[in-house]
Design goal:
By secondary structure, the protein is an alpha+beta fold. It has 13 helices and 17 strands. It is globular and about 60 Å long. GO terms for molecular function: acyltransferase activity, transferring groups other than amino-acyl groups. This is Spermidine hydroxycinnamoyl transferase-like.
Length: 457
């Protein structure tokens, strides 16, 4: 492949004065890994001339209401962080590529695709690292890729998409910085109360994960070669999975008690959703692939999911909240053999249990638990690879609404998956009910995983 040529790099600052203040970060912010969410927006045939100056101008405008994006993080006592809103600005890079979009095939997350997003220098002092970086890469075929890096300590996916789509609405002339939904930067809604309360529940999601049988840590698994793949499901295939998940019950009909929280939804079961069915299917297929050459039927495994708690609290978080409002949850531990022998409903039920336990009481308890932790690195640095998975859903986010004035993107997705066991589930671009899954696994398991994934679909 040809190399990408960088033509310019500039700093964009808010076009009007913004508050100069320090924002305390919530526990949901503090326990995010200090990295950036890295995504690519692919536009195959922009229907108008892309004017970079309009992107820069609209970006400077959106940074007025979204002024924390132009700030910088600072380290404080106890390894925690605070956000200095100082209008230091965001990075904007202009680049070009001599080939075509076809050179990148389906934009499966990889080191090659990551070069379409700005490089973040994590070796620099934290106070110098931008919260938001943009790279606009033009292709000889007329296509365009906008690569974005946004600090995960600053926002979660929902807030990031709210920012990006608001920026796009200004760029295409539909909105102004004053007429967009104004973001709320008040993070007190997810702050632990002082004095700190004793957590009401035991939070197993922050325990040490299951290791491979015979291993006392995950260091050997971290060293093994991995690769990413992109898989597509049609609407018909998705419905077939849902039908499969809802057509049979596991032989053990006792619903595991995840926490002693009364959840009315558990008393009124509904059919398994697309998300529960697909996530359960991924878990089953990964467990089968990882068990293909050895008898690991008794191997423990679990799945980490990320739960948006905006509507889980008695006092719902405002729609315009800008920050992190997602907490991790985990499934009950299962065995490879159980997942292989039971119907899909067995895995789907456990995915549901992981999601449904995130009630107001449990979320509040989790925040209390995190507030008392001195070792933020231990919680943030957990390895979720073999024999476990970490699956993130973008299915509810309007990722294809980013029309900057030349039409909607043809593809949106992560540019890189950082380690073994990581997966994303996303809607397809054509509003046709299709689903895209990207996942990273050890190379020796990938072909078997894909075989099992499409078996009987």
């Amino acid at each position: 492949m040809e190399s990408i040529t960088i033509h310019s790099s500039s700093i964009i600052i808010p076009n009007l004065p913004t508050p100069n203040l320090t924002l305390p970060l919530s526990e949901a912010d503090q326990f995010r890994a200090w990295t950036h969410i890295s995504t690519v927006y692919v536009y195959k045939s922009p229907n108008t001339v892309v004017v970079v100056d309009s992107l820069k101008s609209s970006l400077s405008q959106i940074l007025v209401p979204y002024y924390p994006f132009a700030g910088r993080l600072r380290l404080i006592v106890g390894g925690r962080l605070e956000l200095h809103c100082c209008a230091a600005g965001v990075v904007f890079i202009e680049a070009s590529y001599g080939g075509t979009l076809d050179d990148y095939s389906d934009f499966t997350p990889s080191d090659v695709v990551r070069k379409l997003t700005p490089e973040v220098d994590y070796n620099s002092p934290m106070e110098d690292v931008p919260m938001f970086l943009v790279q606009v890469t033009r292709f000889n075929c007329g296509g365009l890729v906008i690569g974005l890096n946004v600090s995960h300590t600053l926002v979660d996916g929902v807030s990031a998409i709210m920012f990006i789509n608001s920026w796009a609405s200004i760029a295409r002339g539909e909105k102004t910085a004053e007429s967009i939904l104004q973001p709320s930067h008040d993070r007190n809604v997810l702050q632990a109360q002082k004095p700190f309360c004793t957590p009401r529940f035991y939070h197993c999601e922050y325990d040490v994960l299951p290791f491979l049988i015979g291993c006392s840590d995950s260091e050997e698994e971290k060293m093994k070669e991995t690769k990413s793949t992109l898989l597509k499901l049609t609407r018909e295939q998705v419905e077939k999975l849902r039908t499969r998940a809802n057509s049979s019950n596991p032989t053990n009909r006792n619903i595991d008690k995840v926490v002693d929280v009364v959840n009315e939804e558990l008393l009124q079961p509904r059919p398994y959703s697309r998300y529960e069915s697909i996530t359960g299917h991924i878990w089953v297929c990964a467990s089968k692939a990882r068990n293909i050459n050895d008898d690991k039927s008794k191997q423990s495994t679990l799945v980490q999911i990320v739960v948006n708690v905006r509507q889980r609290l008695r006092k719902p978080i405002p729609k315009n909240f800008c920050g992190n409002a997602a907490l991790i949850s985990i499934t009950p531990q299962c065995k490879f053999g159980e997942l292989k022998s039971q119907p899909l409903s067995y895995a789907a039920k456990r995915i549901r249990e992981a999601s449904w336990k995130m009630t107001d009481e449990y979320v509040t308890s989790a925040i209390d638990f995190l507030a008392t932790q001195e070792d933020t690195i231990r919680v943030k640095g957990t390895f979720w690879g073999n024999p476990n998975l970490s699956i993130v859903s973008w299915m509810s986010m309007p990722i294809y609404d980013a029309d900057f004035g030349w039409g909607y993107p043809d593809y949106v997705g992560p540019s890189i998956l950082d380690n073994d066991g990581k997966a994303f589930i996303m809607l397809g671009p054509n509003n046709d009910g299709s689903i895209i899954i990207v996942i990273r696994l050890q190379m020796k398991y990938m072909e078997d995983f894909k075989k099992f994934f499409y078996e009987d679909l």
